[in-house]
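To make the argument concrete, we let one protein speak, a sequence paired with a row of structure tokens, as a model reads it:
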Amino acid sequence: MTSASDLLDPIFGGERNLSTTERALYIAGGLGLAAAAAQPRPNPLLNLIALAGGAYLVLSGYQGHCPVRAAISDAGETALGHDDRPAMSQGSGRSPMSSTRNTASQGAHAS
């Protein structure tokens, strides 16, 4: 017999990609969306969509893995071939652009 965790592992069982705060927000948002699905609406399809979305968010938050987030980050890495984000400067913790702007503005004030 197949258990629920066996069914969910292929979808939600990857490497954790949500922080503790994000997990809490996913669970709270999912419960809120599922509660909103309980309200009567003229179109019952909206209730079903809200319930499914809420369940997805709760399961993602509980497992700590969001398949959509993983797919987006995997697609970005595949398209770029590598991580193409600019590196932060080691000493100041500021980006290179902010330090050049600060240097230029200090030179203007020095005269």
The chain has five helices and no strands. The longest helix spans residues 44-63.
